[in-house]
Structure formats: C-alpha cells, structure tokens
Amino acid sequence: MDYASFFADSLSSLHEEGRYRVFANLERVSGKHPKAMYRDPLTGQSREITVWCSNDYLGMGQNKTVQQAMAEAALDQGAGVGGTRNISGTNRLHVELERELADLHGKEAGLIFTSGYVSNLAALGTLAANLKDCVVLSDRLNHASMIEAMRWSKAEKIIFEHNDMADLESKLRRLDPERPKIIAFESCYSMEGDFAPIGTICDLAEKYNALTYLDEVHAVGLYGLHGGGVSERDQQAHRIDVIEGTLAKAFGCMGGYIAANSDIVDFVRSYASAFIFTTALPPSLTAGALQAVRHLKDSQQERLKLQERAAALKSKLRAAQLPFMMSESHIVPVLVGDARRCREASDILLEDHNIYVQPINYPTVPRGTERLRFTPGPLHTDEDMDNLVEALKATWERLSLSAAA
Ligand code: PLP
C-alpha cells in the first residue's frame, strides 16, 4: 500500500472538484458581533469583516449575562469537571440545565451531551440499535449526525423524500405494524431554511405506531413563545417522543441535548456509549447555556428582531433579483449551482468586500445546488445589508452567475 499517494490523491481530488475546505481564521471581538477580525493567510494581517454565516443566530455568544455566568462558573468551580457524568463529573449546573431543557419542551426529563452531533449519534443511534429489528424512516435532507447515528446503529434505514408526506405514508404502510419504527426528521432544515410539517408527521406516527425523533437544532431559542422551537410554535411538542437540540447555535455556547419522557431519557443515559464514556461539559459552558436558555425563555426581543432582519434581507435580495431560495425561516440560501464558482464567489466577497460567507458544497448539499447560506441576525444593520446586496450584485456580474428567474 502506497499510503502517501493515497492521502495526496484524495486531497487533490477535493481540490479539482473545488470541494477542498479552507477555514477562515476569525477572531470574534466581544460586543462587535456580527463583525469579527479576519487574519489573512498570505499577509498575516488582520482586518474587520462582517460575518454572514454564523449560527450564533441571536448573538447570545456575546450576551453579557451569558459571558458573566461562564466566567463566574469557571472561577468558582474550575476549568473542567474532571470526569464522566458517572464518575465524579456531574454537578449542580448539569442537573439544573437538564431540568430547564425538559421544561422548555414540556417533557419529563432532559439529558445533555458534549455537542448536538453527539446527542444525535448517542440518542438516535442507541434507540435504533436497541429496539429489536428497528427501522428508521429518515427525511432525505437529514443532517450528517443523524445519518451517522443510523449507520452506526446498523438498523434498517428507509429514506423518504424531503417533507413528502405521501411518500412517508406509502413507506410506513408497507411495514409490519408490529415492527419498531422511528421517524427521524428536522424541524427547520439548515441548508434550505424550510420547516417540516410536524403535525402531519405526528398524525402518521400515531396511525402507524412509530416513535418520532425531531432535531430542533436550527430552531431552539428561535421559534415558539419560550424558544422551544417549531414544535412549540406549532403546539406539537407534546406529540413528539424525542426532541433533540443544541446549545451551540441560538444559545450561543456549546453542547447538545435531548428532552423526552423519563424512561426514554433514562434509557439513553444508561445505554448510550457516546454519553457514558466521555467527560461531562465544563461548568463554564453549562452555566452559560443555562443562562442563555433562561434568558430566551422570557425575552421575545431577539426572536422578533431576527425575523424582522431576515424579512428585510429577503426583500432587498428580491429587489436586486438575486436568486435566493425562498424560505419561511431565518435561513436565507442564495443559489450558485456550481462548487468552483461558489468558492470563487465566497473568495471575492471576502477579498474585495470584507464580507464572509462560507460556500456550501457537496456533500453538505447535493451537487448542482451549491449555495451561499446567509444567516441574518438581530445585529445586522440596514447598512450591512445594503453593502451585502451591492457586493453580491458585483460578484454575480463578475462571475456571470444567473439572476433570479
Ligand atoms: N443537527 C443539525 C441539523 C445540524 O445542522 C447540526 C450542526 O450544524 C447538528 C445537529 C450538530 O449540532 P452541534 O453543532 O451542536 O454539534
């Protein structure tokens, strides 16, 4: 085996396809979000740019009370917890955060993990692996973490077309009514910005006796009167068996969780290797997330402003005839349709206009649907938006990209 050629060839094929990932070296500056300092890899110089693709959707990562809670917890309790949840790593903050998250979703119990990715891997994977002969019905656009969970579980996976309820029902109908089934889906799809028909999926789950597993990663904190996500907004949370979320996006910190009835949570807690055999979240992150969840349970201001800003951006893009993909949510994708040109557009925006938006290419989205995914937030100003639209118009002209149909 020629190991050296294997690695070099694999990397050069990514370069050839325009899919090689380049990380922008950014330094966020407290109080400045969505501005950040970008370090140019060639000159080593830093300059201020506007970030248009942050998943710190509400700027809670720089909320003063969250920062304060994190700093105090680190000073009071130390940097890490020094163990897994089972072996010396559980503290008061974990317990309080789990209670708070259960309450947020109207569930009996909550369980926190080191990330949203791990929570999907651990919870969905463990359920699918342990329910005997389980089959998972998975929306075609489900996130990599759910796909990995299903692969790891070795359970049968049946993909239904994205948000296509007729397709889901035809697949459910063909299955043995006695066979354990999980319908796995997202509430707000991160790359399209569209919502799942949660109520209809719950109707089908009840009709065909399936469990429902809902990833609310791009919706918690953002939708519903208390930030309980789209399932809260649509008054469907009580019908969902497992709600999964992240502490890293609207809540601005890091970590993931599930909320469900006590037995399901206790089952995952007791059987999921990715929960059991890893060090628990540190006090700083747990305290920060707890503060962010509590803040967004009460405060509507950030959610309302987010929706107003997203609508403003869509209206400016429409007026400029830029091909944004119509979404009902706060996520605003603009179609490019080619990996190389998507990368080029992103480079031009950064180099010439100090605008940072990461290109989204295969395998995150299907080939031919490569896009720039904008996430306007409460702190993007009208001026930021006007600058963005002018920069996009210039980039579209320079690369001869298609305008909106
Ligand atoms: N689920 C979805 C739909 C996601 O988009 C992501 C991450 O972007 C995750 C789960 C993982 O969440 P985390 O970033 O907290 O690991």
How would you explain this protein's 3D organization?
The protein has 405 residues and is of the alpha/beta class. Helix content is 43%, strand content 15%. It has helices spanning 3-16, 64-77, 85-89, 92-104, 116-130, 144-153, 165-173, 198-207, 230-233, 262-271, 273-276, 283-298, 301-319, 339-353, 382-398, and strands at residues 26-28, 35-39, 46-51, 109-113, 135-139, 156-160, 181-186, 211-215, 242-246, 256-260, 332-335, 355-356, 359-360, 371-374. The strands form 3 sheets. A 7-stranded mixed beta sheet has the order 4-10-9-8-7-5-6, sandwiched between helices. α2 (64-77) runs antiparallel to α12 (283-298) and α4 packs parallel to α12 (283-298). The relative contact order is 0.15. The model has no long low-confidence stretch (mean pLDDT 96). The chain binds pyridoxal-5'-phosphate.
Question: What key phrases describe this protein's structure?
Answer:
seven-stranded mixed beta sheet; binds pyridoxal-5'-phosphate
